[in-house]
Amino acid sequence: MTIKGTPLVEMRDISISFGGIKAVDHVTIDLHPGEVVGLLGHNGAGKSTLIKCLSGAYQADAGQILIDGKPVTIENPRDARAQNIETIYQTLALADNLDAASNLFLGRELVSPLGFVNDSKMEAETRKIMQRLNPNFKKFNVPVSALSGGQRQSVAIARAVYFNARILIMDEPTAALGPQETEMVSELIQELKKQGLGIFLIEHDIHNVMKLCDRASVMKNGQLVGTVNVDEVTDEDILSMIILGKKPEKAA
Ligand SMILES: Nc1ncnc2c1ncn2[C@@H]1O[C@H](COP(=O)(O)OP(=O)(O)OP(=O)(O)O)[C@@H](O)[C@H]1O
Ligand SMILES: [Mg+2]
């Protein structure tokens, strides 16, 4: 599978060090619209650090980020949002005591012409987007602390989608979820793909990678081992990239 056209995101030759440690060492990855690219590697490989340069949490020491082929400067999370980049962290930043709608609009509340927070409009909008993303979601009027892990994920995903994310970063979205919840998040990811979003997915479970990702980029000790099309490799090929740092011969 060769993907043509200008990538949605290119991270070129990115490096970042902490003290003496090269957490990310000259790494180049890219992402196309409607594509899920898995980021794999052992603990400490540099996955989260790399992706934090895109979400604006860190600034790279060297390298370039291009969106739609144009170089951009991302110095903070606000710059990332301005590029329609949204991040969903494993430890979800939801306000536990608020309901789904209040979380969806947290910090970006809808207000009436007189300047009052428009709760009913926010709930209606939340229902609308949940209908599209997760029609089984019914818990609109309870604090999100009463939701399951998967339901919380769907609120976070709805928030990103509502605010027009084109590029979604998901750092181990299913790590804390049971099989059914994982299935629900998988379905959400497929749905977002269909809508043309590009997704960077940090994922440890090879089974999920094979199922959800179009390509996988593997890191080891801060360096990129390689990027493969998942339908051209086996689970073992990917495991050997992760463990041995070796790219399979047959992969381009
Ligand atoms: N803020 C920081 N200060 C110092 N060192 C850091 C910082 N963030 C990450 N590191 C180091 O950078 C390296 C890469 O860490 P990173 O969190 O990117 O790994 P990861 O691939 O996401 O691992 P995991 O799978 O465990 O989440 C590690 O050696 C880590 O200790
Ligand atoms: Mg990490």
Structure description:
α4 packs across α5 (149-162). This protein has helices at 47-55, 77-82, 100-104, 119-133, 149-162, 179-194, 206-212, 235-244, and strands at residues 9-18, 21-31, 36-40, 62-67, 70-72, 85-88, 167-171, 198-202, 215-220, 223-229. The model has no long low-confidence stretch (mean pLDDT 90). It is an alpha/beta fold and 252 residues long. It folds into 2 domains: 1-84 and 166-252, P-loop containing nucleotide triphosphate hydrolases (Rossmann fold), CATH 3.40.50.300; 96-164, no CATH class. Helices cover 33% and strands 25% of the residues. A hairpin with a 2-residue loop joins β9 (215-220) and β10 (223-229). The longest helix is centred in the C-terminal third of the chain and has 16 residues, at 179-194. The chain has 8 helices and 10 strands. It has a 6-stranded mixed sheet, sandwiched between helices. The chain has a 4-stranded antiparallel sheet with strand order 2-1-4-5, with helices on one face. Bound molecules: adenosine-5'-triphosphate (ATP) and magnesium ion (MG). Adenosine-5'-triphosphate is lined by residues 18, 21, 23, 41, 43-49.
